[in-house]
Fold:
Amino acid sequence: MAERVELHVLKGPPESQPVIRVARKDSDRTHNSSRRSLRYSGREGCAPGHWLPILRWTRRYSRVDLLADMIAGVTLGLTMIPQSIAYATIAGLPSQYGLYAALVGSVVYAFLGTVKEVSIGPTSLMALLTYQYAANHPPQYVVVLACTAGIVELLMGAARLGFLICLISEPVTSAFTSATALIIIGTQLRNLLGVPKPVGAMAEGGILPTLLDVSRRYTEATVPDSSVGFVCILLLVILQQLPKLVPASTQRWHRCSRLLWYVALARNAIAVLGSALLSYWIDGGSNTGSAVPWQLSGRVESGIPSFQLPIQDIVVGNTTVSFFDIVTDLGSGPVLVPLVAILANVAIGKAFSSGQPVDATQEMIALGLCNIIGSCFRSMPTTGAFTRSAVSHASGVRTPLSGLYSALLCLLALGILTPYFYYIPRATLAAVLIAAVSPMLDPGILAKLWRAGFRYDLLAWCCCFALCLVAGIEIGLLGGMVISLVQPLANFVWLRVECQTVHEHDQRFSYRLIRVEHGLLYPGVDRLRSLVLQQVHLDGTTDLPIVLDCCRMTLMDFTACRALDNLSKEVHRLGGSLLLRNVPPRWHERLVLHETEHGLAFGSQS
Structure:
């Protein structure tokens, strides 16, 4: 039997809004009981009072969820381990720092995360930002950067500033990620080709100096490194396309298609493991690497780091550097790094939310604690990774608990496999990074923006992309945000108004109508004054009254109220009259406060 809903509209005083009461019948009980049987959607921890989302869904955790999370976690771990090692090299850190970040981030987010697909750990974006702020400094600078970034993220979450993410438009996000991917590809060309890294100022250059230097020194590229790099890229591309070779629709090929799908997901691990075994076989187990013709990653510290607070003094040369001195040397990093991390994490959450809202505030808290706790275990800054999140989604993940299984694989790698990380070729890690970030390039959005007529968004994309390449990604992101915010702010500076002459009652009564769109704030006061005075002197007479229609006004400030009062007096001195019509109830009382003998007058509310 269909549920019957009765609506009662209670009419109150003019300044109050209509109140709608919904009366439900006994079928609510059935509706509520069926609602309790819904599966975990990845966002149930968003309810107020549930700051620990794991307490919401563990009560319904089943064996099927356990098996699905185990498969997804192991698959994700096979992708996370080689990527974490590679991202640590981008940041200029030893490989184990990437594994520390992946381990701690996966564990903490399993308890605090709200989106089951999100994988917290090192990313190409965070690695690049880390290198820009902590290059040529001891690793302790990176640890302090992670700690301060986590503190800022936690404070933003506590202040419920999740709405700030809405200030970054999608074209700016696309330009930012595309420029970052291009910069990472450019910085990995040296390792891919085996070109030695220069010393001096060129070592810290951006993408353009790097490409210029590589193009000048291409003759120094080594054949073994280049061969390993390009073969690994070709292998990764082939493995990625394997599932498309077998039709999955037929029952006969279902198992084969599923097997090829798992092989494609583990392609990074296959490439890294295969090249490392080849290097180990050529070296003959001597553990020196002298016989290997290509450059190797180097030794990796094994074991789990002990708990250590990052607020400690360090010795650099003969100078003791305090925690606050390190924060000062990091410049804008402790502010920009968390902003970019939150942007990336919430964007990934929205991509996998299936149209449901993402609790950005809870994501800020989770990400902040991931970085704060991670810094106590020598972790680099972390955030959500889109590539790994896509792998987790494709693996059939059920809850954030899958991160614990990925963390177990990272723990296994740190405890047992670290001696063998020495044999991973640098060209292989470069190939893994290039293949991982290439899908982030989004030049197709330019054609979409042009064909759809979004010229201003196209301008914001181009400016953000160019600034990221020339001035740095932090300047590019902030510049893109400023440019994209100009358009909505322009609506309040250059008011959108509709002006016309209206004749009513068989043209026995006429007036000039001005209808203001959106709202009237202090930046648009002068614009409105010019328009009203222009209408007063339109035909050289002041016989027709000016009617300002406020039916579409959603915003008004004190300056606008005072300006309307002064404008009404000015029109009266010129021999005309200014009337306000359809004033919203919430602004009526404020405007009355400015009413004088020849001031504001209110027309019909109809």
In short: The two ends are 42 Å apart (CA to CA). The longest helix spans residues 63-90. Confidence is low (pLDDT under 50) at residues 1-49, 200-204. The longest strand covers residues 497-504.
